[in-house]
Amino acid sequence: MDQANRLADAGRFADAIAIVEKERSILPRVLELQVLLGFLHARQNERAKARRILSDALATFPGHALSLAALAQLMYLDGDYALAAETYAQALTAQPNDVSTRRNFAACLLELGDRSKGEALLRAVAASAPSQAGQAIKVLASTSHGRFFLRPSAAAQFLRG
Q1: At 20, phi and psi to the nearest 5?
Q2: Contact of 62 with 78, CB cutoff 8 Å
Q3: Which residues touch 122 (CB under 8 Å, ≥6 apart)?
Q4: Alpha-carbon gap, residue 137 to 126, rounded angstroms
Q5: Please, what is the Cα angle at 64 between 61 and 67, to 5 degrees?
Q6: Rounded Cα gap, residues 108 and 9, in angstroms
């Protein structure tokens, strides 16, 4: 998987996909390989193929937080915010303390216009994992119903409540 990630980072997606496919032929029931393969196809903008792979991962590992979060991320990237939010909520039921899933769920809520819940969730993320404050600010600034701060101190103060 490390070699596939390095190849993908270098833009060599076809080579990375070939490596993951070979690994999957040896270890077909490894969830991480299915998720990685789905994300590699998504990075190549092969969304339908990525969604099919991630949906298969969810069917193979029903209710598993990683497969739910991966599929929700693809739904979010496709602009299907309502379905992504529902899927992130399911992932949080399976793994409630996953900071990145909570942050991504907050992004969905902001995109859906539910600022109070989205902002409260981002504040909780920043409070529970201070290293994620920068990512929380990024979510606030990049979503269509988020917030933009001219001063980093104002953003930090907002997250502290």
Answers
A1: -65, -40
A2: no
A3: 103, 106, 136, 139, 140, 159
A4: 9
A5: 80
A6: 26
Could you tell me if residue 8 is inside a domain? Answer: yes
Q: Structure tokens of 46?
A: 């092969």
CA distance linking residue 129 with residue 114, whole number of Å = 22
Q: Count of domains in the chain?
A: 2
- The whole-angstrom separation of Cα 9 and Cα 66 is 21
Residue 124's domain comprises: 81-161
- Please report the pLDDT score of residue 3 as a whole number: 86
Q: How confident is the model at residue 107 (pLDDT cuts 50, 70, 90)?
A: very high
Q: pLDDT for 3-16, tens place per residue?
A: 888 988 898 989 99
Single-letter code of the amino acid located at 52: R
Q: How confident is the model at residue 90 (pLDDT cuts 50, 70, 90)?
A: very high
Q: Which pTM was predicted?
A: 0.85
* Whether residue 144 sits in one domain with residue 111: yes
**Mean per-residue pLDDT for 70-97?**
95
For residues 105 and 159, state if they share a domain: yes
For 21-80, list the strands marked E by DSSP: none
